[in-house]
Write a structure and sequence with these properties.
This protein has about 300 residues and is mainly alpha-helical. Helix content is about 70%, strand content about 0%. The protein has 13 helices and no strands. It is globular, with a radius of gyration of 20 Å.
Length: about 300
């Protein structure tokens, strides 16, 4: 299977995988179909579908079928069906952030910080527990920009514009009371019981090894590859902070890591020294995700 997935993808590949994604979303929502769930499913579909185009934007996986297939399987294994609207919006906004911040056009990145700030604010409105993403963007600006102060001002301007618009609409609709849910810092619930995540242990170990292997061969990487890989790692840490602090039993939070995990694992598989290691690893990922899906669906843990 690994050799088959290592073939270069073509222009027709992404629509095929998006078709499988659409089928997954429909099948998991067909029994609980209503207008609200249909809207959430639509937002989820758009957010995850944009992820396929992000693979080509980031260009770390050599345009093969492997990341597209693994990403689809990650979504299958981690998608619960009845997704919270906050997670759905976060998946959509994360895809836009990846497309904007990983652009190879420096001019586009500089001019996009107001939009990035607006996206972060919108993400916070729907899911306040994603506040670490704001810190991620600030770190990204400081690390990559020549005019740090100006770009941070643009970023904050985007946040202020969305915030002002949101408060104006709420005041117009006569919602004048402050909702304490927008202050998530006192509601942290660290994951204490990891038994439900045991089927994903092989994938977690692969991620750890992949990061170790990257830094072991750090000097062999090209500057562009090192920059983009570091970007993915910091992006993953921002998602991981939200997961550790707020996930508890809401395992749909793991979908936030589906895209970066796919990139990291796909690169690791490509550079494994033996073919049998690559083949075994692919099947181990598949069975781990199937096992996790079964354990959550049948509530085995």
């Amino acid at each position: 299977m690994f050799k088959l997935l290592s073939k270069e993808s073509n222009i027709f590949s992404i629509p095929v995988y998006i078709g499988f994604l659409l089928l997954i979303v429909i099948l998991f929502n067909i029994l609980i179909f209503n207008t609200y769930e249909a809207i959430i499913a639509g937002i989820t579909f758009l957010g995850i579908a944009l992820g396929y185009f992000c693979f080509h934007s980031i260009a770390l996986n050599y345009h093969t079928h492997l990341p597209l297939f693994l990403y689809t399987f990650f979504v299958f294994g981690l998608y619960p069906g009845n997704l919270d609207i906050g997670i759905a919006v976060s998946l959509l906004t994360n895809s836009f952030l990846l497309l904007l911040l990983t652009s190879t056009n420096e001019d586009i990145r500089k001019k996009s910080y107001v939009l990035v700030g607006s996206i972060i604010a919108l993400n916070f409105i729907f899911l306040p527990t994603t506040w670490p993403m704001a810190l991620f963007v600030v770190i990204h600006v400081i690390a990559t920009s020549e005019r740090v102060g100006l770009n941070i001002f643009r970023f904050l301007l985007g946040i202020i514009l969305i915030g002002f618009g949101y408060f104006s609409v709420m005041f117009f609709l006569n919602f004048t009371a402050w909702n304490m849910d927008y202050l998530p810092f006192g509601k942290m619930k660290l994951v204490k019981n990891y038994t439900g995540l045991l089927p994903l242990l092989p994938i977690a170990l692969m991620l750890i090894y992949a990061i170790y292997d990257h830094f072991r061969n750090y000097n062999k990487k090209s500057p562009i590859s090192r920059y983009k890989y570091t970007f993915i790692l910091v992006f993953s840490v921002a998602q991981l902070v939200s997961i550790i602090l707020y996930m508890n039993k809401s395992y749909e939070y793991l979908l936030l890591l589906a895209f970066p995990s796919t990139i990291i694992i796909s690169r690791m598989l490509r550079f494994l020294p033996k073919y049998w290691m690559q083949e075994v690893s692919v099947w181990l990922i598949i069975f781990s995700l199937i096992g996790f899906k079964a354990s959550t669906y049948f509530d085995l843990f």
